[in-house]
Amino acid sequence: MSGREPEASWSVDQGPRAPRPWWQLILGQWPLFVVLLGVSIGLAWVGLTHWKRGSFVIGVSFLVGMVLRAFLPAHRIGLLGVRRRWVDVCCLGLLGVGIVALALVVPPQP
């Protein structure tokens, strides 16, 4: 034993933190990954000529991002948090509701 026991938390007095491994940095971005995965699935569906279903999936993905941004703590949100919480929630909510409304209101093609 070196005589030093591991600390449960870090403080500024201990000096700079050691960098986290790359896989831990990537796994910390799971909220953004969830939203981008939903948007990708929606875009693929739009590309398969099911534009109403695809648009609906894209809108729902933005609404999921809004919920994640609204309820996850700041240290867990990762790159999904760009601005202040209320700005991100309002932007994602308006975008999601607008796209879902568009997908539901536009009549299907004959």
Question: Can you offer a commentary on this structure?
Answer:
It is built from five helices and no strands. With 110 residues, it is mostly helical. The protein has a domain at 31-105. The chain is elongated and about 70 Å long. It starts with 21 loop residues before the first helix and ends in a 5-residue tail after the last helix.
What's the short story on this structure?
This protein is an all-alpha fold.
The value of Rg in angstroms is: 20 Å
The major sheet is characterized as: none
Kindly report how far apart the N and C termini lie.
77 Å
How does the helix and strand content classify structurally?
mainly alpha
- Please bin the fraction of helical residues: 55-70%
The number of E-state strands comes to 0
SSE topology string: HHHHH
Summarize the SSE layout with pairings.
Blueprint: H1 22-27, H2 30-47, H3 51-71, H4 74-77, H5 85-105
Helix pairs in contact: 2-3, 3-5
Task: Based on the model shown, name its key terms.
110 residues; elongated
